[in-house]
Amino acid sequence: MPFLELFDETLDINSTENYQLSLQLGHDNLSFCLLDTIRNKYILLRSYTPENNKKFSRDNFEEIIAKDDFLGRKYSKVSLLLPSLKSTLIPSALYDPAKKEEYFSFNHVSTESNIILTNKLAEPDSYLLFGIPKHLYEIASEHFPVSAPVHHLKPLFHHIGHTMLSGGDFLIHAHVEADFFNLVIFRERKLELCNTFLYRNLSDILYHILNVFKSMNIKQEESIYLSGQTERYDDLFSNLSLYIRGVKFAEPTGNFTFSYVFNETALHRYINLFTIGSCES
Fold first, then answer.
1. What is the DSSP letter of 168?
2. Which helix H or strand E contains 12, and what residues bound it?
3. pTM above 0.85, yes or no
4. Average pLDDT over residues 125-138
């Protein structure tokens, strides 16, 4: 299977109790990074992806976790990220935990093979409900029992909150996963849009983004930040740049640094992974 690894020469497998593990589990990706808590520096990134655009099975996950020399170690903290297409935001003032299945069913079909989880968000002040396959939850619970799973929108909102401090009327962010993307828009620091779109090709992504710009009367001079599965000068970047003047890639922000081995890496691809450890309540 395709494999990416970056590691600093100070990485020590016998010192993992001084490291924080951030792990992402998804059908199209298993990635994790290690933060050296003594120096607040990221020193390892590993990513596994399936062959030929297939999906990971439960057996695939079990095999990777069993064979990887770092995933079975003890850490000072473990954060688990579970991306999901199915999510719903409920304002805190309206949220009743006894009704989470009912809230979820307003926008999504819940099945017996899924489990509904909840994350509390600080900004916007809300609860994030999301559905994930039960076998993913079972794998997470079995191998990483100390970690409460987090939906990928939670670290994304945390990152956006830091970005908004730079000012501007709009903050527009598109995060791209393998077969869906999230579009989040704040106007004057108030959430105006958080939507998830399925896509099959580049044209679908362009259509949805440009249609939202038009319907919300957003000028082409505004900037849009990209993260996730897109690259500088790829087709998405190049085509968006024809219509939107400020197409930028989101950069991780927080009380941490990166080893020099990350210098040539597209950090925006793993922005939620690098952010999750500092946003959990």
1. -
2. none
3. yes
4. 94
